[in-house]
């Protein structure tokens, strides 16, 4: 009996090669060291103002306090929910309201923080790195709370019509883990901030990869065709390629405009 050969599409070897090539180019052109690479990722999405970033030793975290909270909170939320399986139902109405309040607090605190840059414009209160971190973390949880169900119900052939945060215990764990994360940052222990610096950069890459993977799947009309992580490798690789292209493009434009890898200065 003749065996049926599985057809290997060109993208199955083009995408991995392209991902390796783009990564190698980006690594070559960005600052040296693992923290230098994390800073280069942060450079593409964050102002990196010294006074609005947490410091450890003579280094600062690759993202400002607000972006640190956002991307670490989002990464925490994604990992927390994905471990719950392929659950694709949106959060309950009360939880959606709570996540909406988190998003509102992020916007409100961000506007107030921006007003503080202009001495002639009165701000409503004194925004600090603590409020930036907390509201950023809340926004990260809100993003993950919406993104993960969308990802599961778009990608998989079979997904559970249950929210990953479907009871008070899981919601409490979700919020409790975020509180612990913020406490660890506020303790400002150097080696912890170093590890969280790397994770915050990973959070940027993870969110962008997930979003662009969804875009690729919708463009090629491949929704609900994947059965597991192995079958998801192609759309994830496609999303990663666009993510690293975006990071590299933003890095290049900013570097050409400023001539430095340092963060922006205050007025």
What report would you give on this structure?
The chain is mainly α and about 270 residues long. The chain has one domain (about 35-255). The protein contains eight helices and two strands, in the order ααββαααααα. It has helices at about 10-30, 35-45, 65-80, 95-115, 130-155, 170-185, 190-220, 235-260; strands spanning about 55, 60. It has a two-stranded antiparallel ribbon. α3 (about 65-80) runs antiparallel to α6 (about 170-185), α3 packs across α7 (about 190-220) and α4 (about 95-115) packs across α5 (about 130-155). The longest helix has 30 residues, at about 190-220. It is globular. The relative contact order is 0.18. The model is unreliable at about 1-5 (pLDDT under 50).
**Low-confidence blocks of residues:** 1-6
Helix content: 55-70%
Compute the gyration radius: what is it?
A: 20 Å
Structural class: mainly alpha
The overall pLDDT, averaged over residues, is 91
Give the total of domains: 1
Quantity of strands, as a count: 2
The main sheet comes to:
2 strands, antiparallel
Query: SSE order in H/E notation?
Result: HHEEHHHHHH
Described by the principal axes of the CA atoms, the overall outline is: globular
Strand content: under 5%
C-alpha termini separation: 76 Å
Strand order of the largest sheet: 1-2
Number of helices: 8
